[in-house]
Amino acid sequence: HALNAACVRHRKPLVSGAAIRFDGQVSVYDLRPADSPCYACVFPPTQVVEDVACATLGVLAPLVGLVGSLQAAEAIKLLCGIGQPLVGRLLMIDSLGAEFTTVRLRRQADCAVCSASAP
To answer: 46 CB contacts (<8 Å, ≥6 apart)?
Structure first.
């Protein structure tokens, strides 16, 4: 959450990725578009989350490579100003079913991190 707060403060995009067991996710949190959420809008710092660790639950090694490659592609798109980055969208990866699902994300008006910094 500290990285997200720094990105919000400096108006820089955050390319986020995660993987656990057989599931992954990738998104770009970029407040330059007015309706785009920050990471805390989607995963509030006050939200109680089950403590999960790769060391305990494991992670499919190729999934980590896939998530990392997608993050790199998103960063390149942002740097070059090309394509349609995953801003306002969460790409969820189910490696067991070989399925990708995209979910739309919304900015939360009461977000403790970005609502005060809204343009």
So the answer is: 112
Residue positions counted in the chain = 119
> Please, are residues 47 and 13 in contact by the beta-carbon 8 Å criterion?
no
Say whether 117 sits in a helix, a strand or coil. helix
**Eight-state DSSP code of residue 46:** T
Return the beta strands (E) in 23-74 as ranges: 23-29
Is residue 94's pLDDT more than 60? yes
Per-residue model confidence as pLDDT tens digits over 32-83:
998 999 999 999 988 777 777 766 789 999 999 999 999 999 999 999 999 9
pTM: predicted TM-score of the whole model, two decimal places: 0.89
Q: Are 34 and 119 in contact (CB under 8 A)?
A: yes
- How many angstroms separate the Cα of 53 from the Cα of each of 8, 62, 69, 88, 111? 27, 17, 22, 27, 27
Instruction: Determine the pLDDT at residue 48.
Output: 74
Q: CA 106 from chain center: how many Å?
A: 13
Angle, vertex CA 13, rays to CA 11 and CA 17, nearest 5: 145
